[in-house]
Amino acid sequence: MHGPVSAAWLLVALCAATGGYCLLRLRSAVEEQRHAAGGEALMGFGMAAMAVPAAVFTPPAWAWPGYAAVFGAAALHAVWSARSGPHHLHHLVGTAAMVYMSLVMASSPASHHHPHPGAGVPLVTGALLLYFTGYVLLSGARLVPASAAAGGSAALPWGDRPELARACRLSMGIGMVAMLLTL
Predict the structure, then answer these.
(1) Alpha carbons 92 and 36: distance in angstroms, whole number
(2) 156: domain range?
(3) Rounded to an integer, what distance in angstroms lies between the CA atom of residue 165 and that of residue 51?
(4) Closest by CA position to 136, among listed 87, 173, 96
(5) Count of CB atoms within 10 A of residue 49's CB?
(6) Closest CA to 129 of 168, 97, 81, 153
(7) Is residue 44 over pLDDT 80?
(8) In this structure, is residue 87 part of a structural domain?
(9) Contact 5/55 with Cβ under 8 angstroms?
(10) Which of 131, 133, 182 is nearest to 12 (CA)?
(11) Within-domain flag for 37
(12) pLDDT for residue 10
């Protein structure tokens, strides 16, 4: 992804920290936490890797199709999981967005990542931006009441705290918006 280097490093840190917390949630005693944590950790670390500034590290040509393959497999898993409930559809949209960004990066020469003046925003990018912006706004609105009402969650282990899981999902949504804006 391209953009200001300091913003890119902040995005790398945010996504890596989110991925790390999601790994911690894999050890949760709550089955719902464990079920979603693996896919969210993959998204967090994948977003962190994709956000590393191009000035620091330019991935080899095979990396972008590799990202597309990994997130394509995660998208298939999300399709399979969506049979059990609609809450898995967000994971499907997220993994599909990662596949899309990987394919765009693979097909664009390094010097042409920025849109040309007057080129506009591609339809898929615009649709994903709308989706993730709405997701971020809705998640943020839901997080505030959940944090205030969760006063008794201080006794829960770190991997079982639902407000932290919601905050991680919000962080990844914000990261996705930032990545799509720089695409």
Answers:
(1) 12
(2) 5-62+115-182
(3) 22
(4) 173
(5) 16
(6) 97
(7) yes
(8) no
(9) yes
(10) 182
(11) yes
(12) 92
Q: What does the pLDDT read at residue 115?
A: 46
Task: Determine how many CB atoms are found less than 10 A away from the CB of residue 50.
Answer: 23
Q: Which residues contact 7 (CB under 8 A, 6 or more apart)?
A: 178
Residue 106 in any domain: the answer is no
> Structure tokens of 162?
């639902």
Do residues 75 and 95 lie in contact, with contact meaning Cβ atoms separated by under 8 Å?
yes
Residue 90 in any domain: the answer is no
Average pLDDT, the chain: 83
Q: Check if the beta carbon of residue 160 is closer than 8 Å to that of residue 28.
A: yes
Helix axis angle for 63-81 and 31-51, nearest 10°, is: 160
Residues 6+ apart with CB under 8 A from 135: 90, 173
> Residue 117: enclosing H or E segment and its boundaries?
none
Distance of CA 132 to the CA centre of its chain: 10
Based on the structure, what is the number of domains in the chain? 1
How many Cβ atoms are within 10 Å of 9's Cβ, its own excluded?
14
**Other Cβ atoms within 10 Å of 11 Cβ, number:** 24
What count of other Cβ atoms lies within 10 Å of the Cβ of residue 100?
19
| Residue-wise pLDDT tens digits, 120-142 | 678 999 999 999 999 999 998 88
Q: What is the pLDDT of residue 119?
A: 56
